[in-house]
Amino acid sequence: MAPKEILKKHKLRSTPTRNTILEAFLHTEGALSNSDLERHFGYIDRITLYRTLKTFEDKGIIHQAIDGSTKIKYALCNHDCNEDHHHDYHAHFSCSECEKTYCIDEIVQPTFTTPPGFSLKKADIILKGVCKDCNT
pTM, whole model, 2 decimals? Predict the structure, then answer.
């Protein structure tokens, strides 16, 4: 799907910055951090970048790809995510060699039963190892 179609689906106005950031996600395998995007574009206003990523996350276009590092990374959501509900309950794989983070859609988050009085808000499955590119 093209950036303009994704923005239209999520009821967002198409702007050059939004289109460019979406293009970066569409043409990158794995998750991207703010610094990855800053390096990719050479210069991009950090506040605009932060607001755009926040808007994309709120609208269900991207999700945080938790990999156990201190960097916040984002990856494209599945096609059925929206602003009311994210459907990205899968594992994330962190490569110790290249430090890339990948969504592993084949590993779905199990259902957890919590002890009485506990309320689960979020669970992350983080896999660490060496990715297919670094393994060759």
Answer: 0.87
Boundaries of every domain in the chain:
3-129
Q: What is the pLDDT of residue 100?
A: 95
Give the pLDDT confidence of 65-124 residue by residue, as tens digits.
999 899 999 999 987 788 877 777 899 999 999 999 999 989 988 889 999 999 998 889
Q: Is the dihedral of CA 101, 39, 34, 74 positive or negative?
A: negative
DSSP string, the chain: --HHHHHHHTT----HHHHHHHHHHHT-SS-EEHHHHHHHHS---HHHHHHHHHHHHHHTSEEE---SSSS-EEEEPPTT--SS-----EEEEEETTT--EEEEEEEEPPP--PPTT--------EEEE--TTTT-
Specify the CATH number of the domain 3-129. Answer: 1.10.10.10
